Amino acid sequence: MRGTLLNTATVTVGATVGWAASTHIPEDYKSFVLSGLGLVTLGLGVKLFLQSKNVMIVAASIALGGIIGMAMGIQHGIEAVAEWAKSSLGGEGRFVEAIVTPSVLFCIGPTTLLGCIQDGIERKIELLALKSTMDMFAAMFLAASLGWGVILSAIVVLVFQGALTMLARPLRPLANDPEMLAEVSGTGGAMMLAIGFGLLEIKSLPTANYLPAIFLAPLFVWIGRHLAVRKLQKESLSVESN
User: Fold this and answer.
1) How far apart are CA 75 and CA 1, in angstroms?
2) 3-class secondary-structure state, position 90
3) How many Å apart are CA 5 and CA 79, to the nearest integer?
4) Mean of the pLDDT values across residues 194-221?
5) Do 187 and 61 contact (CB within 8 A), yes or no?
6) pLDDT at 158
């Protein structure tokens, strides 16, 4: 859990620094910074998406994952908590977005998954330390533009990555499977594109609802392999019988 605790701390520190600095930044500058972060997010999303070797797996994962997430009410639940925090703690402006957007942004991608597996099994935090540094700067820029609500996203990071770390052993096969990692990356990239569209105010999507897709992608790879093996077995039996 050391890596997750470090990541939680860096998000908190980065967001706090960004929020403190935001009082000295003009509104048009904040908007400009947020747009820049949106462009970077789109770029990273495209890069990750192109790592996929099978776009159909990404499409199926996003579609089914979105349905599952909607049925579970993931986005609604996070927004409800954010609205409660907004009314209880006196949040202003884009407070709900300030919690939801970084919460999803910090929890998707192969680095999160691999880092938590490494932390849980090997007790090494190199990957999460690298991620923590990147998240700190992202939190800083987001908080400077969206406000102090970004600080609360650290709680989501703690819960989500903490759960992944505790599930490290069952998830270990993913770390040694390039094909599964490629589809996890592609699916995470698609979700990052959705976040980028939101930051640029092009299209607001319930991105949190797509979180189950991250776990469906490797499952679909596994199913595809077993179907292919069965097909080969049937073909070999057919050849032998002839």
Assistant:
1) 26
2) coil
3) 24
4) 89
5) yes
6) 92
Quick one: which of 63, 172, 176, 199 has its CA closest to 117? 172
**Which residue in 209, 119, 130, 200 sits closest to 165, CA to CA?**
119
Angle separating helix axes 2-22 and 153-166, nearest 10 degrees: 170
Instruction: Confirm if 182 and 28 have CB atoms less than 8 A apart.
Output: no
- Cα–Cα distance between 190 and 60 in angstroms, integer? 12
How far, in Å, are 84, 161, 175 from residue 2 at the CA level? Answer: 30, 11, 19
Q: Which of 100, 63, 103 is nearest to 80 (CA)?
A: 100
Q: Are 170 and 121 in contact, with CB atoms under 8 Å apart?
A: no
pTM higher than 0.85 for the full model? no
Determine the Cα–Cα distance for residues 166 and 152; give it in Å rounded to an integer: 22
Percentage of the chain modeled with pLDDT above 90 = 22
DSSP per-residue string spanning 3-67: HHHHHHHHHHHHHHHHHHHHTTS-HHHHHHHHHHHHHHHHHHHHHHHTT-S-HHHHHHHHHHHHH
